[in-house]
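Holo prediction. Input below; ligand is zinc ion.
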Amino acid sequence: MSNLKFLDLLAASFENLPGVGKKTARRYAYYIVEKMNAEQVEEFAKVLIETKNNVNNCPVCGMLSLQIPCEICSSKLRDKSKIMVLKDTKDIIAIENMGEYNGMYHSLNGLISPMDGIGPDNLTIDLLEKRLDDSVSELIIATSFTPAGETTALYLEKIFEKKNIIISRLGYGLPAGGDIEFIDELTLKRALSNRSSNKK
Ligand SMILES: [Zn+2]
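Structure of the complex:
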């Protein structure tokens, strides 16, 4: 394949993407070189660069957004008394797409996982703590039912236990070991309306 080095280089970039194997990566590379015209390639490259340059993580909740703070944090229509805590922005997008939740979010930017060397200090828990003022009445912990998700949920429950807020968890019907982003909307809706809390 040495005479196709130009394709290999492009294919290698696609292979870095999640879920793209060698074969698919080569197909993408081939398609771009052989089937797309110069204008289309330029447009594709422009969108890639502009999106990357203009989208940032919200300094308040961590969500991806074109504006700072993000649309959700700056919205006057959202319920600021509830903060849902999730592993990352992918999970926020999954809950937001469900269209049932009108509160605020907080991305932890990961989960506590001692095996991977990730402790509480590596996450955005300090930023979350700063947000828990009198305006917040409920913290909804929506980490997955994986060992790391459980560890993180228990840790958050413990450190915020003494605060004057309801700490609830998504639970009912969520599959063990399931990542929030892969759970169907109906199950998520049920889990949200049937969340359990520490103060009844
Ligand atoms: Zn935000």
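The chain has a mean pLDDT of 91. That is the main takeaway for now.
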